[in-house]
Amino acid sequence: MDNWSTLIANVKFSLWALSWRKIDIVPQASHLEFGSSGICVGGVIQWRNTRYYPKCSRTVDDEVVVAFDLKEERFQVISLPGGFSCMPCLVELGGHLAACRDPIEELPENVPVELWILEDYDNWGWVNERITLPRDIVRPPIYTNGAIQAGEILLHANLPPPVSTHLLEIYYYGRNKRSLRKIEITGLPLPDSEFMNVFNHVENLVSLRDI
């Protein structure tokens, strides 16, 4: 059994029966490599077939999004727009699949935050969104982990707040009015790691009290 067949055999888990069930449907392109950073949007698990690296020999044409519909129990391969290989991170924005740059990627200052959003799932219609931050923002690279319930896109730096201020700045971007607002959070303890993430809280089957 090859690696892809092993993946398919373990992809469906029943919460009620607490057991795995084999799925006998073969995806459209069984030779695709399994990437990472998968995400579930609207009952569909989606992941990139590869992770992007600057020295990678793969071309944009080799890279796709592989999707598995949990209800229909079928696979789908979604094509990517040109130049998409530099946007390897998948996130959810208002119920839509979206992709952004890797948070560890260094970008020049005043470069817009760029996203690709899959608004037309049936026809693979990707929409480009470029968010220009104010010029007076002195910042490390800004990236997103998704959107809040109001539909605004969550933006933040991937570095801990300065020791001198313990001030964390978070930005919310509204796509309809193209407006940007800033939230300042103070008094946070410094994390142990070099990088930090900010996520939108989503109700889960597991209580946060048990973590």
Automatic annotation (TrEMBL):
Q: Where is the F-box associated beta-propeller type domain positioned along the sequence?
A: 18-197
Q: Which PANTHER family match?
A: BNAA05G37150D PROTEIN-RELATED, F-BOX ASSOCIATED DOMAIN-CONTAINING PROTEIN
According to UniProt, the name of this protein is F-box associated beta-propeller type 3 domain-containing protein
